[in-house]
């Protein structure tokens, strides 16, 4: 029976083999560790892993007095803690004045490129001849973009800058930017890049969430390491019947995932003014907005925050973050 030869290694060979193993191990650690050890957005804010954080964000301030009044009422109660203003709308001066006199409030700008109501309209801030693709034959922003020629990205940038400059000129110091009807988010890379470029110039974070990356992959590709990206968003849809309103939000809060989630809501008072302004359809109308106001100013909402150990944060806090290392 043949014997297998014994293998002998010199000290130098053994050291070389050991060194190779060390190098390979270091390589594996360097490729795996950054992904697992990178801080989450919540951790960058100083919270331990697994913390549930929400921004309760009121859209459409400036649209009507009833929307302004409801948002201010809820903000002063401390449950709605963030909002954004529509600069082209008729009641923007009222909420801009409130923002100017309450500099600690968390107000952003709801960048607006459409005027979707039938009888209650608004026009661009920039001169109409500077942004012809954004306006209809009567000089108002289009009802929608589905039945009109594509908007011109350069004209969009002109209008965005005009809206921001008007807000700054009226004493508003915005904490963030977002997009009315998500037009700048979900209409293609070109318009999103316009929004991102303008936001970077004014050193403002924009509302974008990882929830959208699968359907709009250009979002993630355009964002850089210094951009704030929320983990999730929750907003109610027209398919939810009025009697299920509180149930929808209760379920969302009980099933909330760790990280930073923005609840996009639309508070307003169901009064004669708001009913007239939104009378052509019930979606995002007067009764809809009253239901949002009622839930987010209720004792039920406060109790859910306590029970689920959910903490409120604002865009002002997010804006103070330095880029991740």
Textual characterization of the structure:
It is a single chain. This protein has 325 residues and is of the alpha/beta class. The protein contains 12 helices and 7 strands. Strands 1, 2, 3, 4, 5, 6 and 7 form a 7-stranded parallel β-sheet that branches. Helix 3 (65-77) links the parallel strand 1 and strand 2. Helix 3 runs parallel beside helix 10 and helix 5 packs parallel to helix 6 (189-201).
- CA radius of gyration is 25 Å
What sequence of helices (H) and strands (E) makes up the elements?
HHEHEHEHEHHEHEHHHEH
Q: Based on DSSP secondary structure assignment, what is the total number of beta strands?
A: 7
Determine the structural class based on helices, strands and strand pairing.
alpha/beta
Mean pLDDT, all residues? 90
Residues in β-strands, percent: 5-15%
Task: Give the CA-CA distance, first to last residue.
Answer: 63 Å
Number of helices: 12
Biggest beta sheet attributes: 7 strands, parallel
Low-confidence stretches: 1-37
Report the principal-axis shape: globular
**Quaternary class:** single chain
**Portion of residues within helices:** 40-55%
Task: List descriptors.
325 residues, alpha/beta, 12 helices, 40% helix, globular, seven-stranded parallel β-sheet, 7 strands
């Amino acid at each position: 029976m043949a014997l297998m030869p014994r293998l002998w290694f010199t000290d130098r060979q053994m050291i070389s083999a050991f060194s190779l193993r060390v190098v390979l191990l270091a390589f594996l650690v360097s490729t795996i560790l950054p992904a697992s050890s990178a801080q989450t957005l919540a951790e960058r804010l100083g919270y331990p892993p697994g913390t549930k954080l929400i921004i309760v964000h009121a859209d459409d301030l400036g649209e009507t007095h009833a929307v302004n009044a409801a948002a201010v009422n809820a903000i002063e109660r401390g449950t709605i803690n963030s909002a954004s203003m529509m600069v082209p709308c008729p009641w923007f001066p009222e909420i801009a004045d409130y923002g100017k006199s309450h500099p600690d409030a968390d107000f952003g700008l709801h960048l607006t490129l459409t005027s979707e109501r039938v009888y209650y309209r608004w026009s661009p801030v920039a001169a109409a001849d500077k942004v012809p693709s954004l306006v209809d034959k009567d000089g108002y922003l289009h009802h929608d973009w589905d039945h009109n020629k594509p908007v011109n990205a350069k004209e969009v940038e002109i209008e965005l800058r005009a809206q921001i400059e008007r807000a700054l000129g009226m004493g508003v110091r915005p904490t963030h930017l977002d997009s009315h009807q998500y037009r700048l988010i979900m209409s293609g890379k070109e318009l999103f890049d316009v929004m991102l470029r303008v936001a970077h110039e004014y050193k403002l974070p924009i509302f974008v969430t990882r929830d959208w990356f699968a359907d709009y992959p250009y979002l993630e590709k355009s964002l850089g390491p210094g951009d704030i990206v929320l983990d999730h968003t929750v907003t109610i849809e027209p398919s939810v019947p009025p009697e299920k309103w509180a149930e929808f939000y209760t379920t969302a809060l009980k099933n909330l995932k760790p990280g930073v989630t923005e609840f996009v809501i639309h508070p307003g008072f169901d009064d004669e003014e708001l009913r007239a302004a939104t009378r052509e359809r019930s979606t995002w109308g007067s009764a809809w907005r009253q239901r949002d106001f009622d839930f987010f100013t209720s004792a039920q909402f406060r109790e859910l925050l306590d029970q689920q150990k959910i903490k409120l944060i604002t865009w002002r806090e997010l804006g103070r973050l330095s880029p991740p290392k």
